[in-house]
Write a structure and sequence with these properties.
With about 120 residues, the chain is mainly beta. Helices cover about 0% and strands about 35% of the residues. The strands form 3 sheets. It has a 7-stranded mixed β-sheet, with no helix packed on it. The mean pLDDT is about 95.
Length: about 120
């Protein structure tokens, strides 16, 4: 009850949990079994696939696409029109300004890919 979900254009999949303080703007689509954690903001026309974890305080710009099984760390930010492939980890407080490739980890400001 303490989240803001814009009108009836927002679609939320089965098993997805929306925590307190979340803001979902128009035309957001969230897949199944996701967690949208406390105080996160997801802007217009963003599409989040299944099994994605959005940590507390994450800010996602408009028209972002997030692939399956991805995890965005606490306080991270994704600018508008970015594509994040499947199985991507974005580190805490990172700023993603480029598309993220499959099975990768990104950290920093701006975020860069790391190999482990």
């Amino acid at each position: 009850p303490k989240s803001v979900i814009s009108n009836d254009t927002v679609k939320i999949g089965s098993g997805t949990v929306i925590m307190a303080g979340v803001i979902l703007n128009p035309l957001v689509k969230i897949g199944n079994c996701c967690i949208i954690n406390t105080g996160s903001i997801i802007d217009h026309e963003t599409k989040i696939s299944d099994y994605v974890h959005i940590s507390p305080g994450v800010n996602i710009g408009g028209q972002v696409k997030i692939g399956q099984c991805s995890w965005l760390g606490i306080g991270s930010t994704v600018i508008n029109n970015i594509s994040i492939s499947d199985n991507v980890v974005l580190g805490a407080s990172s700023l993603l300004i480029k598309n993220a490739s499959k099975n990768s980890k990104y950290v920093g400001i701006p975020a860069s890919k790391i190999n482990e």
